[in-house]
Amino acid sequence: MVLGVNGPIKEVDESMDLNLILNVFDRLNGDAKALPEKRRGREIQRLKNELVDEKTGQEFYRPKTGKSFEGRASEVKNEGGISNYLFKKHKLKEEA
Predict the structure, then answer these.
(1) pLDDT tens figures, 10-22
(2) At what angle do helices 72-79 and 82-95 cross, to 10 degrees?
């Protein structure tokens, strides 16, 4: 057993404990001030999640995108171009 391995004992500074308590208090007080902002952020996120169409289940303001169906290119070509194709689709939609 080796003696004297530990360094000399230092006197305890009692003001250090007070500073620690004040630091903890300041940190908790800061957290309490930030809490309403966190709640507000959660509320905004909840409202965003509620923006869903009840009929389709799709989110509002999020268009469905993706590849067109397999035969659309040939269908556009047969109609004489994209403008004629879209005009025909629009007419069919009005008639329905």
Answers:
(1) 665 555 555 666 6
(2) 100
